[in-house]
Amino acid sequence: MKTKEIIQLNANLQTQLTSVNEEYYGDLLVYVRTLAFLRDEQQTEELLLSILQDILDAQKNGRTAEAYFGKKPKEFADEIIQQLPFNVVDTAKLVAYGIGAYFLFSILPTLINPTRPFDVGTFSLTSIYVGAFSIFALWVFGKSTYHVRRSFKLLAAVFIGFLFAGGIAVNIFVSTPLKIYFGGFLGSATILIVALISGYLLAKQDNKKIWLPLIPVLTTSAFLGIFSRLPISSHYFDFSTQQGKTILAVTLCIALFLQFVLLFWLGYSSKQKK
């Protein structure tokens, strides 16, 4: 089976777990998947599926996962990770994909104003920073799984918050000479191509719901960027005028409101399923 098929089978089988076993296996799953980031994903998922099947077999015989695997799941999970081989090539591909996705989904808002140059150097530095930040945040999230102390989780959250703020600071305060102006037809064509590629990537995702909140802001940014460059509509979308600023502010506020509604709806629907 392919990795995606194993993950889907794993998710389907988890619905058969009792609440106690679900908690035990859920923590184990999160811990292994996050900390086995550099390991072979196929073998990781195969091993996790094998463990789940063992738990289900034990459950049929009236035994809990804790009774079957022991009361030290962290040590057991560490042993599992040590068994898995490294796969640097796939990891590099995943990091490159993440940076590329960030580039595609972040470039549209920066191209709204045709009079502002696009700083390739700053954007590249921010993309690399975001990639490194995501890996570190993933590691911290995994490590916090078996930490009972709230102080550790609080400090981890604060630290990640500072790192996130650092990424914003890089994007705002760092400037490089590698600037490109995307005005007129070139800008409109670039925005359209990026929007189409982003839409294609979103359509390919298995779990499309988690990406839905991105659509209002990305779509609005694309339309604003194109309309501000078209001769027939650029007068109304001149962001150096009060009218243009008002249209920009109102449109983005509507997009952000729709994003909030989608986030609320996704959170509410997930609670209803539980």
TrEMBL record:
Protein's name according to its UniProt entry: Uncharacterized protein
Keywords: Membrane, Transmembrane, Transmembrane helix
PANTHER family given in the database record: MEMBRANE PROTEIN (PTHR41307:SF1), MEMBRANE PROTEIN-RELATED (PTHR41307)
Regions crossing the membrane: 94-112, 124-142, 154-174, 180-203, 210-227, 247-268
Species this chain originates from: Enterococcus saigonensis
Top-rank taxon: Bacteria
Signal peptide segment: none
